[in-house]
Hints:
InterPro entries: G_TrmE (IPR031168), MnmE_dom2 (IPR027368), MnmE_helical (IPR025867), P-loop_NTPase (IPR027417). By secondary structure, the protein is of the alpha/beta class. The protein has seven helices and five strands, in the order ββαβαβαβαααα.
Amino acid sequence: QRPAAIVSPIAGTTRDVLEVALNIGGYPVLLSDTAGLRDTSDSVEQEGVRRARQRVEEAHLSLVVVDLTQLPSEPQRVPVFLKEHLRSILEHPTLGQESVLILNKSDLVSAEHKQRVESSLQMEADLPLVCFMSCHTRDGLEDLLTLLQGRLKILCGDPLMGSPSLTQTRHRILLQKTAQALQEYGQYRDLDLVLAAEELRLALGSLGRITGRVDPEEILDLIFKDFCIGK
Ligand SMILES: Nc1nc2c(ncn2[C@@H]2O[C@H](COP(=O)(O)OP(=O)(O)OP(=O)(O)O)[C@@H](O)[C@H]2O)c(=O)[nH]1
Ligand SMILES: [Mg+2]
């Protein structure tokens, strides 16, 4: 929630991809601000748009920011306008499932207009999640963060559920042993291959007791094959 990008009234200000690491509800997020996806004759901006599209392809979630004041004045025309807009900027229609539509500059429209636009979008099944906000007044920012947190929970899994969290003492101890053995391996690696290999075996053994997937013979075969040590 700090200013990171250059902001100006001139369209086409952002060209390079600007990345900021964020913590949203405990999830580590890499947020990329890109050039706006629009047709342009400026070759530098064209490169910015190409990079932006590439980033959209790679992203787990894309936030599409639209200026509320640029939407049709009749609210009933807004859903079709937004669908066409999304189709024109997102090459793959399935991206609609992984995007959030942010209608920005809510401070510049009346509360009634915002309400009417919101109602016109409520029944739309084939639009992404929609969020109203104002970067100027910060209105809607908390709602956006809550919405993102919900999406991240689905994308990354709930850390309070399932196996990845270290809830069992046995797992914690075995992981500590794994880390310790890997550290020793690092120290022996350039000094003594046999001791280094033994530490690797110990590390895999500890890890394997959690995952249940260790085949020492297979690992030893690999070590002996790669390091040419006689069996
Ligand atoms: N009133 C109002 N103005 C805003 C808001 N958000 C951004 N602006 C203004 O809109 C203009 C464009 O903002 P930018 O952040 O540069 O927009 P952008 O989408 O990154 O644009 P490009 O980098 O050129 O693609 C600036 O003059 C901002 O001050 C808002 O919520 N309310
Ligand atoms: Mg920008």
